[in-house]
Amino acid sequence: MKNMPISDRAYANRRVTAASLLTERTLRDYRNNRRNQSSSSNPSRTQALQVAKRYASAIGLKAAKIALIDQLFAFSQAVDWSDADVGPIIWPTNELLARRLGIKVSTLKHHLAGLVEAGLICYSDHPTYQRSGRRDNDGRIIDAHGINLSPIAARYCELLELVDAAEFEARQYKRLCNRRTVLKRQVAATIEAARLVLGSLSEPWNSLLARLDRLLERHPQNSDELADIVAALEVLHTEATELLGGLYADQESATAVAKIRPLQTTAESPLSESCNDKRNCAGAQYIGESGAGAAMAFEEKPSDVPGQIKGKTKSAEPDDDLVNVSLPLLRSAFVHLSEMVPEVFEHWTAFRSSGGLFCRLCYINPQVYQEAVKVLGQDLAIVALALTAERSANGSVANPGGYLRELVNRSRQGSLRLSRSLFSMAASARQSH
Questions:
Q1: d(CA 403, CA 208)
Q2: Of all helices (H) and strands (E), which one includes residue 379?
Q3: Which of 167, 62, 141 has its CA nearest to residue 107?
Q4: How high is the mean pLDDT of the chain?
Q5: What is the pTM of this model?
Q6: Which phi and psi (to 5°) does residue 300 adopt?
Q7: Phi, psi for 66 (deg, rounded to 5)
């Protein structure tokens, strides 16, 4: 078998790729047209360097390849870019380029191959693949073999358009990314606000949350795909905002109804003559000045509380609970709350406006308290909420929300006796003390 000559072996030839073929064809057309054009139409060395680096950055080449472009242009002279016969060819050795970049020769060859694939350079080879060149007294290249930078000049207009388009795409993508982040946070904040109002998300809100998760799982490859995600997020944000607005409107409506609920006082309740014997009914009245809401009934004598505990022979009806409740009784019954928030027991106005505080103390959803207000009225509801908070604080109630709902259900069934619970808790507190 006849041996193949060394020069014909595959490893002795440069690898031919589609990119190298396209570069050769572009360079051939450029050489044919260049002789008919003036030198002023060709890019200068500075222009070629700028567009080469911008293009390399736009297509995602790493910093090492961009630094290599700088080193290659360092061996080129301005006159090389105006010579129509030879073109900008340089002939530094791989060892010299690698030493300037501080890398190995094998790594340098890898980066040179990357620039060839990017269509920025090609090779003008000597038969022995050695790089060499000569210049005349004016610095013009007479003969050169090595790395050819002419593809940058041949593709200058094309590269310039590609760079402008890539930079515009990058700006658009960055702007859309920022908008996506803002919308994501706004939708998440809206859903969290609904969670605070409802306690747990209902079906419409769970659907919105699932749609948000699906949108955030998408990984767009360009600005068009990212624009679709941003548009979907804007629609989602609009829906979430409208849904939360309706939720707040319903809540405000329920609160307004609770505020105008009439309050039964001592004067309105059919009290028996035992009222004068067992409690002071003169203190049960409205505080109706300047359109303010009616205040709860109160007792002026804290010393009456023990008499009520001991002499209570008639079970109070649910409507009579307000008559039996007084601030001294509340302070005596709610030992833990009196220590944690003593200021709310100084006046009925402060006590009646402390619903949000009690909800936070025992981690009750405010919506549950609003439901209690609808059923019990504002005054009985705040007493029931304070009772729930006290029992949660002393550890006798593990589920405050469920306990408050149970009190509301007892009221619907007509079996709620808040005053009995208060008297019992006050008596237990005295015995413990």
A1: 31
A2: helix 378-393
A3: 62
A4: 78
A5: 0.48
A6: -85, -15
A7: -65, -40
